[in-house]
Amino acid sequence: MVANLNDADISDVLDCQWLQQLHSYGLLAGSFRPQDEICILRSYIRHRDNLIRSAGTHVQRMQKALTQMNLQLHRVISDITGKTGLKIIRAILAGERNPQQLASFKDGRIRRTTEEIAAALVGDYRREHLFVLEQELQLYEIYQQQISQCDRQIEEYLSSFDSQIEPEKLESEKKSSPKKKCCGNEPAFDLKSHLHRISGVDFTRIDGLGVLTVQTILSEVGLDPSRFPTVKHFTSWLGLCPGSRISGGKVQSSRTRHVVNRAANAFRLAGNALSRSQSANGAFFRRLRARLGSPKAITATAHKLARIFYCLWTKGGEYQDPGVDVYEQQYQQRVLNNLQRKADQLGFTLVPQPNSV
User: Fold this and answer.
1) N-to-C CA span, the chain
2) Given this model, what pLDDT does residue 2 score?
3) Is 71 left (phi over 0), alpha (psi -120 to 50) or beta?
4) CB within 8 A of 121, min separation 6: which ones?
5) In angstroms, rounded to a whole number, what is the distance separating the alpha carbons of residues 292 and 269?
6) On the CB side of 18, how many CA atoms lie within 13 Å of its CA?
7) In angstroms, rounded to a whole number, what is the distance separating the alpha carbons of residues 239 and 216?
C-alpha cells in the first residue's frame, strides 16, 4: 500500500536527504554545547535567575499594595526590600501606624531625612491592601530562602572544580583586594574567588564585568576556549558582530543577527553599565552613544568587551585599563592621522593652530 504524500511531505523528505548528504560531507557544524560539568553549573545558575525574577515580581506587588494605600515608600527609599524598607513593612504589618515611629527605623546611610520618610508614610491603611502586602512579603521571603539554598548548592559544586591557579597566589590576592559587602543579588559566599580559581583569570578586572556577569558568561561558554577557533567565531556565536547580508556584491544590511543568548545579554548589560565609568571602555561607550545612539553603542561596547574577554580567556594574564586620558589621546591621534591622509590626497597641508592664551 502506497501512502499519499502531498507537496509539503515530499519537501520534508527531500530536506532530510539533503541534510544527511551535507552531514556525510562534513559540511554541517554541530551546535555549541559546553562540557557536562559546565552544563550542571549552568542549570543551577539559570534556576537561580528564575528565582530572582520570581522574587522581583512579589517586590513589585508589595510596592503596588503600598501605593494603593498612598504610602510612597519607594520615593524616599531606593529599595523597599533593603534593611530599612523591610523593617518598616514588618512594623506596618505588626500594627504600627505612627509615621514618626515608622520613620525612626531609617538606616544612617539613607540620605532622606526622618521627616521626609514620615511624610511618605501618611496614608490609608486599608485592610485588603494590608492582607495583600502580608502575603506578598511572605512569598518574597520564601523565594529568598530558596535562593539561599541554591547559593549553597552552587558553592558546593564550584568547590569540586579543579583549581587553575596556585592556592598561595589566590590567598595573597584575597588579602590584597579590598573586602566589600554583598550588594544586589550577589550570593553570600566568595563567588569571585571561585570563578578566579576555576578559570585562572580574574575577569572582574574588566570594567563593566561584575561577578554575577562573569558567572553567567562562564556558565554559558564554559572553560574551554578551543571550541571557538578565533575571536570572530566567538563574537559571531554571541550575535554581537556586524552582519554580512550581501546580494549581488552589495551590502544590504550590516545589522547584528537576532540571537537568543544569555552570554550576549550579559555583555550588553555590562556595556550599558559603562555609561559613567571613568575608564577607557566607558569613554568608548560615551563617544559612540553621542554619535550613534544608545542601542548601537551598547552593541558595539558589548562586542568590544567580548573581544577583551576572549583574549584573556585564551591567553590568560591580567587586564590593565589604560584609562580615559590615554584613550582620548589615542582617539585624537587617529582623527589627526585621518585628516592628514585626506589632506595629502587633496594636495593640502595641515597647519597646526597656535594655542590661544
Assistant:
1) 98
2) 46
3) beta
4) 71, 73, 88, 99, 102, 103
5) 18
6) 6
7) 16
The DSSP code for 228 is S
Q: Cβ atoms within 10 A of the Cβ of 277, count?
A: 17
The tens digit of pLDDT for each residue in 85-133 reads 999 999 999 999 999 999 999 988 888 899 999 999 999 999 999 999 9
Phi, psi of 317 (to 5 degrees): 90, -170
Chain position carrying cell 560539568: 37
Q: Which residues are within 8 A (CB) of 335 and not within 5 positions of it... i.e. 6 or more apart?
A: none
Give the integer Cα–Cα distance in Å for 282 and 275.
6
3-state SS assignment for residue 221: helix
* Residue linked to cell 544590504: 252
CB 195 within 8 A of CB 154: no
334-356 burial by CB neighbour count: b if 16+ within 10 A, else e?
eeeeeeeeeeeeeeeeeeeeeee
User: If residue 354 lies in a helix (H) or strand (E), which one and from where to where?
Assistant: none
pLDDT of 321 strictly over 60: yes
Q: 262 falls in which pLDDT band (50, 70, 90)?
A: very high
What is the DSSP secondary structure assignment for residue 178, as one 8-state letter? P
Angle between helices 83-93 and 127-158 (to 10 degrees): 140
* Cell numbers that stand for 278 in this block: 571613568
> What is the per-residue pLDDT for 12?
60
**Could you tell me whether strands 250-253 and 245-247 are parallel, antiparallel, or unpaired per DSSP bridges?**
antiparallel
pTM of the complete model beyond 0.90:
no
Phi, psi of 252 (to 5 degrees): -85, -40
Separation CA 179–CA 303 (nearest Å): 30
45-82 tens-digit pLDDT: 999 999 999 999 999 999 999 999 999 999 999 899 99
The distance from CA 44 to its chain's CA centroid, rounded to whole angstroms, is: 17
On whether the CB atoms of residues 83 and 107 are closer than 8 A, the answer is yes
